[in-house]
Amino acid sequence: MVNTEVDFWEKRRQAALAAYETGKLPYIQRFHYQDWTLFDETQPLASDSGLLDQALLKTDPQQIKIVQFGKSTILIQVPEKLLQAGLIVCDLKTALKEHPDLIEKYYMTQVIKPDENKLLSYHAAFCEAGLVIYVPAKMELAEPIEVELVGDATRKQPWLHHLLLIAGANSSLKFVQHLSTIGEQPQIANLVAEVVAGPNSHIEFSSLDEVGKNTTLYFNRRANLDADSHLEWNCAFMNDADSIGDVCSELVGQGSYGYSKAIAVTAGDEQMAVNNLVINRGRHTTGLINQRGVLLDNSKLIFNGIGQIVHGASGSKADQKNRVLMMSDNAHGDANPLLLIDENDVVAAHAASVGPVDPVQMNYLMSRGIPYPKAERMVIHGFLDAVLSGMPKGMVRDRMLTILERKLIHGQRQRFSEV
Amino acid sequence: MAVLEVKDLHVEVVDQEKKISKEILKGVNLTVKTGEIHAIMGPNGTGKSTLSETIMGNPRYHVTSGQILLNGENIVGMPVDERARKGLFLAMQYPAEVPGVTNTEFLRAAINARRPKDNPVPIREFLQELDKNMDLLDMKQSMTERYLNEGFSGGEKKRNEILQMLMIKPSFGILDEIDSGLDIDALRVVARGVNAMRGDNFGALMITHYQRLLDYIVPDVVHVMMGGKVVKDGGPDLAKKLEDEGYAGLRDELGLDIELVDEN
């Protein structure tokens, strides 16, 4: 096991194992995934960094960059002056040895709990790979933290990973992760991210998910927001894998603000369901959801937007938009807004739509000579703009735009002779 | 010289709610050559905008008979983007908003659509041309990075239409009520843009309800439309006469049996 000296860790894993045996799969409205393979109890092996695209390993000394491949940590680079100022960036194993107090306090104790469902119990019982980032109070990071997480599907083995991101009071940071896979073997991925947003902290969390076709992915990303903190999720789901997952913001502290943006482009026979939740617990909290999906080919996408205002969260605001573009008659999409409100003094709104690209916008662009396929891609770019423009400039963003263009062109080739 | 001819054009639209089609244009005839500015005037509901949208190729409008010839080629049935690349441009009355696509990005895509794939417009050349035309239209630099028409005021949208026309340099500009909703200063600016295009390689078809526009862009020919047809042609004087006597006066003079929408 990871470290026999850490007593609490072993006890927790035993408890999680028991919960895993009796646990139930989470319910996802209007989506059947119960027959998917989502568990694999075998031990993953170390991965060979020689298989990685070496461009991923390029860094400059000012950058904070982490590359993890399967269960192996390949690169951690942090400027020395930030380390001296108290920034902690290390893999889970190291954190257990060097910062067991952080793990004991935060790891699946406050934000996400192991016994919530079978997938999380499994995660708590089996996950050994991960990344721990602690940004001390008042630290303001000028450059984004860049993380490359690569699944090793060159062998049949599970990919489990846990991210724990703790932002101290008044800190400010941008976090960008890129999920991808190498190899074509069938594998399950179970990726959990916990974010602890301290009082008045400011976090922009971006993720580009590009998980390969033969992986079945479960993800859970959740943040607890303390008073006056500000968190934005920017999730670009560009997987080829079938996937289910949650993105959740718990607005615990008074005056906290959570904005959950997500885009998904699904293609082929891909199936995806996302629960995007924002829960207003504290007073005067603001919870926003903006989800945009583009469906190609025979794919299926369910966007559930769940805005909950609990009793006592007076003066709060919940607003959500869920929109889905159907680019193929064989695709299956749904945008389901759900508002659960248990308090009177609040402002809440939702909007949802499922449909084709806007013919008025198309006609306008084409009336300037832009051919249909190009005009359609422009309208779709615009449709996805909230997330596209929210992603910080850099390699991951460039990669996202490249994948998007490739996916759209591929989808168009099924429909038009000339693209 | 390029020629745009409309021959005995009949057009209907389908009422989406009632699911019935209604004939709007009932045999329009018109010829415009480059080097000429034509104005089409007419009362509300007479088919002026239908004519402009149909020439451009908006799929909502169905040509039931007649022809639209561009340099002798019938373009009825040709998709809108192809017509645009052949030299037609429609400055729309209500331009669409396209969030997420910047003005610059859009203009470059439009210009490059007319060039070979491996020879896009050089950026410097593009930006110089853009600066020049924005100066002409008193447009702020910030407009270039704003999303296409999103949150633009009515006047800004109209200027942006003219900016596109100046950049794309079509053979024929169809201007659908570019004067509506503009104050006199904005109208002057828009007119300056259109007048800058006047010349041997450009022809225009201006649709308007008001004679005021024609004080700033003086037409060579004025057509009056009523009841889905061109009922009278003339010079700039015809517009002035209409301003004085109204459309009802002209109708009665011509002995037409047409009911005007706004007539009491």
TrEMBL record, chain A:
This is Fe-S cluster assembly protein SufD. Residues 79-147 form the SUF system FeS cluster assembly SufBD N-terminal domain. SUPFAM superfamilies: Stabilizer of iron transporter SufD. Belongs to the iron-sulfur cluster assembly SufBD family. NCBIfam families: sufD (TIGR01981). Residues 157-383 form the SUF system FeS cluster assembly SufBD core domain. GO terms for biological process: iron-sulfur cluster assembly. The gene is sufD. It holds the Pfam family SufBD_N.
From TrEMBL, chain B:
PROSITE patterns: ABC_TRANSPORTER_1, ABC_TRANSPORTER_2. Pfam families: ABC_tran. It comes from the Bacteria. The keyword Nucleotide-binding applies. InterPro entries: AAA+_ATPase (IPR003593), ABC_transporter-like_ATP-bd (IPR003439), ABC_transporter-like_CS (IPR017871), FeS-cluster_ATPase_SufC (IPR010230), P-loop_NTPase (IPR027417). Residues 4-252 form the ABC transporter domain. Keywords: ATP-binding, Nucleotide-binding. One of its GO terms (molecular function) is ATP hydrolysis activity. Belongs to the ABC transporter superfamily. Ycf16 family. NCBIfam families: sufC. This is Fe-S cluster assembly ATPase SufC. It comes from Lactobacillus corticis. The lineage of its organism: Bacteria, Bacillati, Bacillota, Bacilli, Lactobacillales.
